[in-house]
Amino acid sequence: MSWVETFRAAAEAVRAHRLRSVLTMLGIVIGIASVILTVGFGQGAQNEVKDEISALGSNLLIVSPGSSTDSSGTRGGFGSATTLTLADTTAMSDRSVVPDARAVAPTVSSQTSLVNGDTNWTTSMVGTTTSWPQVRARSVAEGRFFSESEAAAGADVVVLGPDTVDELFADVPDPVGQTVTAGGRTLTVIGVLDASGASSSGSSEDDVAVMPVASALNVSGSTSTAVSTAYVEATSGATLSAAYQEIDALLLTRHAVTADDADFTISTQDSLVETANATNATLTVLLTGVAAISLLVGGVGVMNIMLVSVTERIREIGLRKALGATPRVIGRQFLVEASLLGLTGGLVGLLVGVVGSWALPALIDQPVTLSLTAAAAALATALALGVGFGVYPATRAARLTPIDALRSE
Amino acid sequence: MSESIITLEGVRKTYRSGSVEFEALRGVDAAIEQGEYVAVIGPSGSGKSTLMNILGCLDNPTAGRYLLAGEDVSSMSETQLAEVRNRRIGFVFQQFHLLASQSAWRNVELPLVYAGVPRADRRARAIAALTRVGLADRVDNRPGELSGGQQQRVAVARALVTEPALILADEPTGNLDSRSTADVLALLDELHAAGRTIVLITHEHDVAARAERNLVVRDGEIVSDEPVAGVSA
Q: Domain MacB-like periplasmic core spans what residues (chain A) (predicted)?
């Protein structure tokens, strides 16, 4: 009996027992689809993080107060939040000390309530310098950014993010020139930022109120010179690590500490991506593990059904043997049947996975990246499960003697 | 003078279950010639089923020789026996043993599938065999849509389709009403008249009486081998 005939007989058997075949495949379908979707979620999350981090700007170094050892967390220490000051960032801006930095943008951040008439909106207020748009790779959509003189004077001006504008000036066609009040001061809106697209965990980059450092301190009524984060743009990708060294040396000298006791942290985009990916990877491995178990359960399901099928069709096997089917032909038929169930289940699962990764992001606001490797691996697994779990039932079927099989009830 | 299709020489079959041995056949000698219509008759437990299994190459004898169409099949492997069954023997079973999900002609073509006959020839030969048993208008019906007598005729067509040396019918009328019984026996008569070699296993004497020769089996031995009265050999 040729392979074509064997395949035809197997396909007929699968079709003849439709319900049983569908139930068998269900386990495989769910397994494959969940593998594809979980891997897709993991990759989608990683890509999102990558996008967010690259949206921060290019060739960026992020200097933050407090020390952190490689990956074991942040060392608090006394007043760790005030170990980075405006004086430090001013020193970083000195080209003779840090020649490989193009621009430095210190930021002083806090949550502030902005009021426009009877509309009240709490947003993150960022006090910074005029370098901020360049360093953070942001541009102004309407109006302008604040000037050096406004920065020096601590003028009551503010540049709003597009989302903030939507909240505060829903009915105003042109918010530029309007005023908002915050911390008892009346601020003039001089510009609106372009949408950045990325939303970093928790707060949107598009919901901000950017103003000069001095203005921000006026609003919050603080006299602290502490910097929340300083963003430094290197002159190029090649000089990024030189800039890192220069800032590291500068801050160690200024703070009079050794590298082991550093009270600040400098991160690069790469190191941020790595940290984020490490977290995501753990989650992906976990989810994939769960999916793999469901796939295994699906495989055991195929084996069970094939065993039941052998028992149920014991007389058919006896008849086929009496009519001249050799043990090998019978074994082959059941093996092909199991593989067919595995493969069909795998293909349907692939389809469900693909459709799911296309449809789900719209429903749950999470990106899903379809991974070809995961899809191919899942399909190969389905086929392997079919063949693997089909072998035992097939050998059992082949070993039956025709008389016993024919006589069985 | 005719040629022997079946030669049994001192055939024994012993079943063993644990330490208990049971001798189902204790040395059977027989010869059946081309074109003969033989009934093997005996009460249940007589060993006639064992004899039928050995004649049908479904089982190997423990001792002795079995020549089928000149070939010694007594020590063949399972795979070789499968091939001999396919080429030489057409089976008709008491329970019909048709595949319920397949149409009549698909059931009849089954032995040809295992013989490696091309698909187009198979359909033509299956339909010819169904026509031969008077079911030309039922080729596409499934077993469930046919009467018991018709189902057994499909099974006979399946036994005929490979042009086997021997048609082996195991209680072919055991599950049929009297009218279908008459139908199927008439069909066997016809096939015999056309020169087929038929061995019929039964415990019913009136069925056995249709054959031209009766082998009576009791306690694992042939106790009588006689032509049926009124039939000329």
A: 21-249
Q: Does A11 touch chain B (CB under 8 A)?
A: no
CA angle (A266 as vertex; A263, A268 as ends), nearest 5: 165
Q: CA A304, CA A291: separation in Å to the nearest integer?
A: 20
Touching B: A residues 284-343, CB under 8 Å = 315-316, 318-329
Tokens of A277: 């990916």
* A406 CB within 8 Å of a chain B CB: yes
Residue A68: its pLDDT value, please? 57
Q: Which domain holds residue B135?
A: 36-57+78-227
Q: Nearest 5 degrees, angle CA A298-CA A300-CA A305?
A: 95
A98 and A38 belong to one structural domain: no
The verdict on residue B69 lying in a domain is: no
Report H helices in A186-256: 213-220, 240-255
Number of CB atoms found within 10 A of residue A326's CB: 21
Residues A235 and A109 in one domain: yes
d(CA B106, CA B122): 9
Of A236, A262, A288, the last residue of a domain is A262
Work out how many CB contacts closer than 8 A connect A with B.
56
Q: For residue B226, count other CB atoms closer than 10 A to its CB.
A: 9
Of B79, B99, B158, the CB nearest to A327: B79
ipTM score for this prediction: 0.91
Give A24-79 pLDDT, tens digit per residue. Answer: 888 888 888 888 888 888 888 878 777 777 777 678 888 888 865 444 444 444 44
**Is B179 a member of any domain?**
yes
With CA atoms as reference, the chain A residue closest to B158 would be A323
Contacts of B78 in chain A (CB under 8 A): 326-327
For residue A93, the enclosing domain spans 84-262
Query: What are the residues whose beta carbons fall under 8 Å from the beta carbon of A222, sequence distance 6 or more?
Result: none
pLDDT band of A362, cuts 50, 70, 90: confident
Note whether residue B203 is domain-resident.
yes
Which residues of chain A have a CB within 8 Å of the CB of B59? 401, 403
How many distinct structural domains can be found in chain B? 1
Residues of B with CB under 8 A from a CB of A: 53, 56, 58-59, 78-79, 82-83, 85-87, 91, 93, 97, 99, 101-102, 110-111, 113-116, 158
Are A173 and A244 found together in one domain?
yes
